[in-house]
Design goal:
328 residues, mainly alpha, Rhopdopsin 7-helix transmembrane proteins, two-stranded parallel ribbon, 9 helices, 1% strand
Amino acid sequence: MNLTAVNQTDMCEDYSCPERSVSLSVYVILYVAAAAVALLTVCGNLLVIISVSHFKQLHTPANILILSLAASDLLVGVFVMPFHLSWVIESCWISGPAMCLIFSFVTFQATCVSVHTVALIAVDRFLALGFPFFYSEKISPTVICITTLFNWLFSFLYNFTLLYINGNFTNVICQGKCLYVVDMVSSLIDLLIVFIMPCTLIILLYIRIFAIAKKHATAIRALQVHNSTESSKNKISDKSERKAAMLLGILVFVFLLCLLPYYITSLVISYSTANLFHIRDVAVIFFFLNSTINPIIYAIFYPWFQKSLKIIFTFKLFTKDSSLMNVQ
């Protein structure tokens, strides 16, 4: 996730933070809006994390992946958004070199985890629809928990290595700027691992998922009215899996919609002499807003999240055996 990358041969130029060019009222409005977006992101994803963690009925493989995505989105809301929006408003990095390094690492980590988690969601839905017997026998919450932990650990080691081998832990930070060094080879590797490979996998799997869902829907419509009890159960289960795939498809579509503008502008900037950095800044904000949008998607389309919100807001969460409540 290259927010402001520089080549190793680049040197710090004399730079001073520009004077504020907007009125105090506009300045205050910008900060209030930034704080509101960050707070909405934090609260929304906290509610998702509490819901999936607390209610035992929600401890399913698909929901554990949603929990992982909410955790990375929470990281964006708590740490990335406040610093980045402040940087954009001030047109200057005012938080010092140490926070710049931490900010860069957390941004890399949250981005990498999010993209790979969405890819895992696509794999999960593909297996659930395409290989239902294998999925029910082999893909348990424990397996998904281990996979999720591996995803976070891989992202941590990968991003630490990426920043370390490019000397970002020893480089002098430019005053008023938050830059990090990424050479061309590292940048291409990062593009492959964090964008091209997972996004290609996501798109291909969801094309296949929708094809399977359409095939299943056609088969269900072809069934006779008088079915056995077992066939009815299979029909309901199959319909549930297709609905879950469709809903998660909305999540994936919105994610790609927020992700693609940033990487497209980044690639254009790399091969263009035009000054498009302001456009990329807007694309970055849209990418971060995906962390705000995800809980809203859950609230609109997921009945289990709506029921869990009702329980949380009516304080029934603190009653005895509330974790066993029916939220499906």
